[in-house]
């Protein structure tokens, strides 16, 4: 099978108390695993089985809905795990910090805009910080869509993403999505976000 479930870069309890162990176990071991299985099924015996997930997302409008949903799910979650770490949080430094101040006025303004994107996304989806042509912007997508997809309303390279599907927070936070969004800031892996910022155009 060409697409495989990446291992979590930390133990399932590493993000406690902000994101609980059981949520991580189910989210990674069941939800993400299912996107991988279904992406393999949806691309089996097609030319897409040998393409990278990035290539698939960029041409997703031409592909079956199952490829869009499961390909997006696989890409988004693979990215999401790396964007968090034990002892994360705080604020970014260096070029990323400068870019945030330039494009959002301040880190606090950015944080507010990103949080609102997650809190106000109706139903299931994601909040994003994206880079396009050197500029940063906040976006949000429904379901497992992603700003790299050709169908995305706001396009760019995602450098920070937050899963706001209920499966990402319901066990610990129930209907209190804003509390989950607030907790997320304590586990953000700014080193990885900075790395993606510098690697994107
Ligand atoms: Mn999810």
Give an overview in words.
With 201 residues, the protein is mainly α. Helices cover 47% and strands 11% of the residues. It contains 8 helices and 3 strands; from the N terminus they run H-H-H-H-H-E-E-E-H-H-H. A hairpin with a 2-residue loop joins strand 1 (125-132) and strand 2. The protein is globular, with a radius of gyration of 16 Å. The mean pLDDT is 97. It binds manganese (III) ion (MN3). The site of manganese (III) ion has 7 residues, from helix 1.
Produce a short descriptive summary.
The protein has eight helices and three strands.
* Strand neighbour order, sheet with most strands: 2-1-3
Which molecules other than protein and nucleic acid are bound?
Answer: manganese (III) ion
Rg result: 16 Å
**SS element count, helices:** 8
Helix/strand class:
mainly alpha
Q: Indicate the proportion of strand residues.
A: 5-15%
Order of helices and strands: HHHHHEEEHHH
Mean pLDDT: 97
Number of strands: 3
Biggest sheet record: 3 strands, antiparallel
Characterize the overall form: globular
Q: What percentage of residues falls in helices of 4 or more residues?
A: 40-55%
Point out poorly predicted stretches: none
Please give the alpha-carbon distance between the first and last residues.
31 Å
């Amino acid at each position: 099978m060409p697409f495989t479930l990446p291992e979590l870069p930390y133990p399932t309890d590493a993000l406690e108390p902000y994101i609980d162990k059981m949520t991580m176990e189910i989210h990674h071991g069941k939800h993400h695993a299912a996107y991988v299985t279904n992406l393999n099924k949806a691309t089996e015996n097609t030319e897409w089985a040998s393409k990278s997930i990035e290539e698939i997302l960029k041409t997703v409008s031409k592909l079956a809905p199952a490829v869009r949903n499961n390909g997006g799910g696989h890409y988004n979650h693979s990215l999401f795990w790396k964007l968090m770490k034990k002892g994360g949080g705080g604020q970014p430094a260096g070029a990323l910090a400068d870019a945030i101040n330039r494009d959002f006025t301040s880190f606090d303004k950015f944080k507010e805009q990103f949080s609102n994107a997650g809190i106000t996304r109706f139903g299931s989806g994601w909040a994003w910080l994206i880079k396009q042509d050197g500029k940063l912007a906040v976006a949000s997508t429904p379901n497992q869509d992603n700003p790299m997809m050709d169908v995305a309303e706001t396009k760019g390279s995602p450098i920070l993403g937050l899963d706001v599907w209920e499966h990402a927070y319901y066990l610990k936070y129930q209907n209190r999505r804003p509390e989950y969004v607030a907790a997320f800031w304590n586990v953000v892996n700014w080193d990885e976000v900075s790395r993606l910022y510098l690697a994107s155009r």
